[in-house]
Amino acid sequence: MPHLPGNNMTQLSDRLETILHQAERRALVAVLRSRPELTLDQLQACFTGRYGEILQTITIRELTDTKVALDLPSDGGPVIDRGALERAKRLTGEAFDACVLQAIQSAGGQPVSASYLRVRVGGPRWKLLGSLRRLVEAGQVERTGVTSSTRYRPLVVPKP
User: Fold this and answer.
1) Looking at residue 43, what is its pLDDT?
2) Cα-based distances in Å from 23 to 16, 20, 46, 131
3) SS3 67
4) What whole-number distance in Å separates Cα of residue 88 and Cα of residue 99?
5) Taxonomically, which superkingdom (predicted)?
6) What are the mean pLDDT values of the chain's consecutive 10-residue runs (160 residues total)?
7) Comparing C-alpha atoms, which of 133, 128, 152, 150 is closest to residue 142?
8) pTM greater than 0.85 (yes/no)
9) For residue 142, how many other CB atoms are within 10 A of its CB?
10) Domain 82-154 has what CATH class?
11) Strands (DSSP E) along 21-78, which ranges?
């Protein structure tokens, strides 16, 4: 990398900071738009968190008009890691089970459906259902409901 004089380096650093701030702001707008059930009271509770300072300045116009290219899943879950999805497709047995368990745990203790897991872990339906059966039998995952209302939640919560 060529050496940049101090002034050019400062300008580059300032520009990078601006770009990152704008990207962070657009990402927050995308997250808010993906959660239309949030009340203003619930949103206000987030004002003291890590992104509180930015959240307090987002306008209704930004929420309705901002073009956002961030691909958030429609099921309200965490963003899908395409690289992890590709790796999981090639795994079998205990290694695949570990990926399934990690996807269940990433939902923050909330029960999830098999379709939620399919888009995050990949592979054929039979492979996922076999893994879920093994995780339930091993006492790592709890299964509730039947057919389309079946949900899975972790019994072992990872330490942060």
Assistant:
1) 84
2) 11, 5, 19, 37
3) coil
4) 7
5) Bacteria
6) 62 78 81 79 84 87 72 63 73 90 85 87 86 94 90 76
7) 152
8) no
9) 14
10) mainly alpha
11) none
Query: Are 154 and 104 a contacting pair, CB within 8 Å?
Result: yes
Q: Which pair of tokens denotes residue 34? A: 């993906």
Spatial neighbors of 127 by CB under 8 A, at least 6 apart, are 92, 96
**Inter-axis angle of helices 82-89 and 114-121, nearest 10:** 90
Q: How many Cα atoms occupy the beta-carbon half-sphere of 159 within 13 Å? A: 0
- 98 in Cβ contact with 134 (< 8 Å): no
Candidates 158, 80, 91; CA nearest to 130 is 91
The predicted pLDDT at position 90 comes to 83
Token pair 């057919």: residue:
147
pLDDT tens per residue, range 113-154 = 988 888 888 878 889 999 999 999 999 999 999 888 899 999
Structural tokens at position 158: 């990872």
What pLDDT is attached to residue 70?
A: 55
Domains in the chain: boundaries: 6-65, 82-154
| Token duo for residue 109 | 């203790």
Q: Which residues of 125-137 are buried (b: 16+ CB within 10 A; e: fewer)?
A: eebbebbbebbee
Of 64, 73, 149, the C-alpha closest to 107 is 73
